[in-house]
Structures are given as C-alpha cells and as structure tokens.
Automatic annotation (TrEMBL):
<dbReference type="InterPro" id="IPR006121">
    <property type="entry name" value="HMA_dom"/>
</dbReference>
<feature type="signal peptide">
    <location>
        <begin position="1"/>
        <end position="22"/>
    </location>
</feature>
<protein>
    <recommendedName>
        <fullName>HMA domain-containing protein</fullName>
    </recommendedName>
</protein>
<feature type="domain" description="HMA">
    <location>
        <begin position="23"/>
        <end position="90"/>
    </location>
</feature>
<dbReference type="InterPro" id="IPR036163">
    <property type="entry name" value="HMA_dom_sf"/>
</dbReference>
<keyword id="KW-0732">Signal</keyword>
<dbReference type="GO" id="GO:0046872">
    <property type="term" value="F:metal ion binding"/>
</dbReference>
<dbReference type="Pfam" id="PF00403">
    <property type="entry name" value="HMA"/>
</dbReference>
Length: 110
C-alpha cells in the first residue's frame, strides 16, 4: 500500500511539473539588423531538437522559441548559440504565451 501511495504521489508531481513548464522561451536579442539575421537565427534555433517553431522580430529585438511537448533548452545553450552567431542576448524569460500570441503582440506594437 505504501509503495502504491508513493507511486501516485510521484506521478502527480511529474504531471504538475509538466503542466507548470512553460512551452515558449522569449528573448531580447541585440544585433538583429536585417532579414538575413532573422533567417539565420531561425535556421540555427530550428535545427535544435527541442524546438517546435521560432519567431524573430527585428523591430522589437525579440526572438521566441516554442518547445515541443516535454522538451526544454537551457538558457546557457541558447545564449551560447546566439552569441556564437554574433548576437547579444539581454534577457530570457519562459512564458506561458504561445508563439502566435507573441507574434500578435509584436504586430500590435508597430
């Protein structure tokens, strides 16, 4: 009985962790100046296994990555990838907004 209870508690904790995990990473990235920059970042980040989709806003200096279910990319990896490409990551946040919401927000700020 104790083992069953422990297993149930463990399963509930795993489910709660999955629900709480943000599926989108939003970054403020400086050094973006042209469509070629955006295309390069998009290609680099899309090549990473956990990435589902990428949005880049040159105007707002925003790069957002939506993650596949149950996947994650640590901040250090993202900073390293973008720094190696010549960009400066100023902020990283894990948000509950979808990529579509971030895209709409950027479009509304124009």
């Amino acid at each position: 009985m104790k083992n069953t209870m422990k297993a149930l508690v463990f399963a509930a904790a795993l489910l709660a962790a999955g629900v709480a995990q943000a599926k989108t990473i939003k970054m403020e990235v400086h050094g973006l100046v042209c469509a070629f920059c955006a295309q390069g970042i998009e290609k680099k980040l899309k090549s990473m296994a956990p990435t589902q989709a990428v949005f880049v806003s040159l105007e707002h200096k925003v790069v957002a990555v939506s993650l596949k279910d149950g996947q994650d990319i640590d901040d250090a990896t993202l900073v390293s990838q973008l720094k190696d490409a010549g960009y400066d990551v100023r902020a990283i946040a894990r948000v509950d907004d979808s990529l579509e919401q971030i895209r709409a927000e950027a479009k509304a700020k124009r």
